[in-house]
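Hi both,

Apologies for the delay on this - the queue was longer than expected. I finally got the zinc ion-bound model through. Below you'll find the protein sequence and the ligand SMILES exactly as submitted, and right after that the structure tokens for the full complex including the ligand.
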Amino acid sequence: MTATAPREEQLWSRCAGCASLLYRKRLRRNLDVCPECGEHARLGAPERLRQLVDPGSLRLLPDRLPEADPLDFVDVLPYPHRLTGARASTGLAEGVVCATATIGGHPVALAVMDFRFLGGSLGCAVGELITRAAERALDDRTPLVLITASGGARMQEGALSLMQMATVSQAIAALREAGLLTVSVLTDPTYGGVAASFATNTDLVLAESGARMGFAGPRVIRQITGRALPEGFQTADFLLRHGQVDMVVQRRSLRGRLTALLAATRAGRPARPPVPRQEPASHRERLADDGAVLARPTDAAAEGDAGTPAIRDAWDTVRMARHPGRPTTLDYLDSVFDGFVELHGDRLGADCPAIVGGVARLAGRYVMVIGHQKGHTTAELVARNFGMASPAGHRKALRLMRLAARLGLPVVTLVDTPGADPGVSAEEQGQAAAIAENILTLTVLPTPVLAVITGEGGSGGALALAVADRVLMLENAVYSVISPEGCAAILWPDRSAAPQAARALRLTAPDLRRLGVVDEVVSEPSSAAHDDPADTAHRLRAALLANLLPLLDVPPAMLVRLRRQRFRRFGANRVGARAGLR
Ligand SMILES: [Zn+2]
């Protein structure tokens, strides 16, 4: 071997993805992402921190802990020898580096795992250091960001390693209780006990492009099942499709994405303690006065109501509400809101395309937006299952509602669905219970909730997003317990009676306003929403702001009391309201 060989090694490096020989400095400038094939090379913790945090903001947390070899473990080498070797080769004291820093100006505590150190394994020291980083976040009231890279728990420390999964998880739980954001970024590879604890039980889970995550490794699964694994098994894109991660992020976008999420969640009010379920009757009566506080926006914004033009036939309205050109939730996210960051997945196995959700800004204020997504073309409609949510969609919505409440973000829902997915697999996965859980959760969600029926408000699938403090409805939207066709098929001789059924069901915005199901009708341009989406967006934005701003001043406990009172009104004593219908 010549004397120049080691030098050559340092100057050049071979891509693990495409085998290109790459100039090291160029590779580093490209954040260790191969410019040829996009392969994300593994990063050590120090380099990861350098890429992620604001220059000059990094303050390392202490990394020295008392030496521990609790089992006197020996395989072919004594455990202390392995530790010494890992320290020498990485220059790190342990397999994780913890610090405080700012990312895009937002203070955070960080724990960054380093796969080079004994496979990023989770031992007692690693668990202790990450727990201390979480406790530091709690003390400083900052979010916690975890960057994971690990083969799992550290065998050399036996069951004590296993216990670290619980130790770190309870520190995460404390942050959750305090309404402080926790984010994990899965990097390649994240497996075993780390995957099955703090890598996935955080509020948000991001996966770096190409990262693999799983409980059992592919080799083990192949051995046990004797089967070939699907293409891309356990990769970031696979995880996204199966509802396990909120998003897949290219390394060059990671800092920006984290900054946007930190900004959104920093804006929220801290979560408040839950509201007791039962109230004495006298208490309830007293709340009648509180109700008056929230009644104001209706009166203030009633002109759209008063100025409602000639009453359109209900069946015409149904066709209008279903018009393929009608703006969708994603259209409104683009036109009414700013800076939408979509969050995916139910964490249980699927990401339903019929429901979209994430954080966005409404006139500078951060909100969690959740809505049904249809589409304009047949291909879009098919891809989105015509806006009919699966149980996974309802569970994604539930996860985002709860996250919003914990972080103090108001929830805005946009309802546009013919109904929940009526398929076989939806039933197998508990469609009824999924809808039921959303309805129940919304009745007690300790944060403002504003719902808008933008198109079709179909049955329980609609209500799963529409138990709210204020329920708005676009002028040509419909909201009904059953589709007119379904109603006609059951109560009339055949489905051709749908127009009559539509009239009988009282499903138009003015009718529902009179019944008190809807608080305010948002007028559409004189033609209709699909003829002038920009004007519709302008009107919707004004209505959202007029209704949301007063809610922001109401303490969450009172919001919940008033919301429950709102839905308590729809009992049998409501019969008198029928007099208002013509
Ligand atoms: Zn490459």
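Main takeaway for now: The CA atoms of residues 444 and 560 lie 6 Å apart.

I'll put the files on the shared drive as well.

H.
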